[in-house]
Amino acid sequence: MVGLAAAVLLGHVVVDVITPFEFHRDEFLYLAMGEHLRLWRMDFPPFIAIVARVSRALLGDSLTAIRLAPALASALIVLLTGVASSVMVALVGAADRGLERERARAFSWVPWLAMIAVITSPVFLRPGNLFQPVVFDQLWWTAALLAVLMRAYTRDVRWWIAIGAALGLGLLTKFSIAFIGVGIVAGTLFTPTRRDLLTRWPWLALLLAVVIGSPSLVGQWLLAFPIRWQMRDLQAEQLGVRSPLAFFAEQPGLVGPAMLLALAGLVWLLSTRAAAPLRAVGIAVITSWILLSLNRGKAYYGAPVYPMLFAAGALAIAVALPERLAGSQTVWRKRIAFSIGAIMLLLWPVALPIALPILSPERTARYIAALGVSESTRTNYGTTLELPQDFADMLGWHAMVVALSHEWRAMPEQDRADAVLLAGSYGRAGAIDFYGPRYGLPKVVSTAGSYWFFGPGGKPGRVVLALGVSKADLEPFMTHCDELRFIGTPLGVEEERRIPITRCAGPKTSLQKLWPVLDPSHQ
Questions:
Q1: DSSP readout, 231-273?
Q2: In the beta sheet, which residues pair with residue 480?
């Protein structure tokens, strides 16, 4: 199992070495958050900013260095899947001590099938190759559910401390950990594990989770709960157009053929007597999914439960036939498992160029067109691109900053001394902050999302050089503006295909006085 997890880590490193793509727009934001790390005053959970600060300090700014942490998390998910599978086999086998050792030998393929399902699922492939909170969120969900399994296997209530630690790290990473947290509570209440609530351990776990995740909660309190306007914007632009059923309808696209294994695992966990020791996990999974669908969540929000479902599905195949392990039955089960694994492995190379950025942008676009899988290029806003949105978001940033630097150097030296760089989105702002120093550019100012909390800087804005902000948008605040030129990325997302570089002078009020008016919570 360790060898397979190590292969996953190595695979992600190789992809980062050979990829012709750049950083993702979100990665620029998280790197900037690491530079502006204020543990108790972040507008969303600071784990990714902490990792950014540590990664850059220890490893540097290369693509491979920045993405090593998510690659490690991806490998750990695969490893924990194998461990969870082994624990499930032991739990089910424990009901019949006479068969326990025989089961361990006969079902040794169960962890491998579950791990292969994770490795070949696009929803785990791509997050492991991006410096985003998603893969860490997947890791903490997996760890929390594994701790639930360990509580059932060992019958040691102290495993609640591990559950609390995993949920606390999840709270430090993404607020969506609350969905599986509620699911674990439901799994506890509706199984004999509810007796644990009469002990101190679940309550200590709750306290530990809150303590570990407290920077996320305190930041919300001190900044007047920015999650409210973040969710407002998300609902208005993306989630509001979704139906509750879309969450379930889109699940097969996340994992491909492994969906059959996951469904078998879910049904088996919830309905069979053999799975009774594992029932709390099944209830936690279905509860989290129902809550996410009712809240119109994106399909991938619920993906972290799949490692457990794959493990359960592999075990369901193992125990599908009568309990006694006759030789012919064992062979039959192995053949089914090997057939499923072979299908996933055979289809994996077909999906790989769509899941990971290994081909050039042009070749990727042609490959997707030839396969006719336009659904894989649908954006969060319902439009369709030539590339998957994540790939389109990894294009053009360096060239954009180079173009901006040309206009910066073209300004008189006196103007440069007073000038403020302004960016119209967090992706552009983050790209300027990342690439800009090598071209002599100062730190950027932006009102986009988290950047507003970084502040307007110390210059009043006598001269403004803006990237991605139009003349019409700037004229209410400046007396004179000119759009110098337009730049863009043909295969990028729509808003990056034609963006202006605008120069303005003569502010009607200082940037510092204007800043509170530009508060994104009021826009």
A1: HHHHHHHTGGG--HHHHHHTHHHHHTTHHHHHHHHHHHHHH-S
A2: 505
pLDDT of residue 409: 93
Number of C-alpha atoms within 13 angstroms, CB side, residue 347? 17
- Between CA 461 and CA 508 the distance in angstroms is 10
Distance of CA 326 to the CA centre of its chain: 44
pTM of the model: 0.92
Take residue 317 and report the two structure tokens written for it: 């195949």
Percent of the chain having pLDDT more than 90? Answer: 64
pLDDT, tens digit (0-9, with 9 covering 90-100), for 487-516:
999 998 888 899 999 999 999 898 999 888
* Number of C-beta neighbours around residue 446 at 10 A: 28
How far is 95 from 48, CA to CA, in rounded Å?
42
Q: Is the pLDDT reported for residue 137 higher than 70? A: yes
Residue written as token pair 């004229």: 475
CA gap 196, 40 in Å, rounded: 33
CA dist list (Å): 88 to 108, 146, 331 = 12, 10, 21
Q: How far apart are the first and last CA of the chain?
A: 50
Q: At what angle do helices 160-171 and 201-212 cross, to 10 degrees?
A: 20
The one-letter amino acid code at 506 reads G
By three-state DSSP, how is residue 476 classified?
Answer: coil
Q: How confident is the model at residue 229, as a pLDDT? A: 75
Predicted pLDDT at 325: 41
CA distances to 39, 206, 300, 340, 454 from 172, rounded to whole Å, are 10, 14, 19, 37, 20
Determine the pLDDT at residue 75.
Answer: 97
Burial environment of residue 178 by CB neighbours within 10 A (0 to 12, 13 to 18, 19 or more): middle
For the stretch 181-225, pLDDT in tens is 999 999 999 999 999 999 999 999 999 999 999 999 999 999 888
Q: Counting runs of H as helices and runs of E as strands, what totals does the chain give?
A: 28, 5
Alpha carbons 132 and 49: distance in angstroms, whole number: 10
Tens digits of residue pLDDT in 84-99? 999 998 888 655 444 4
Task: Give yes or no for residue 328 having a pLDDT over 50.
Answer: no
Q: What are phi and psi of 466, to 5 degrees?
A: -115, 140
H/E stretch holding 109:
none
Residue 327 has pLDDT above 70, yes or no: no
Nearest to 143, CA basis, from 122, 117, 172: 172
Buried b (16+ CB within 10 A) or exposed e, 328-339: eebeebbeebee
- CA distance linking residue 369 with residue 256, whole number of Å: 19
Q: How many CB atoms lie within 10 A of CB 522?
A: 8
Closest to 184 in 3D by CA, of 194, 199, 169: 194
Cα–Cα–Cα angle for 93, 94, 96, rounded to 5 degrees: 75
Give CA 396 to chain center in angstroms. Answer: 22
Give the count of beta carbons closer than 10 Å to the beta carbon of residue 240: 10
Report the C-alpha gap between 103 and 105 in whole angstroms.
5
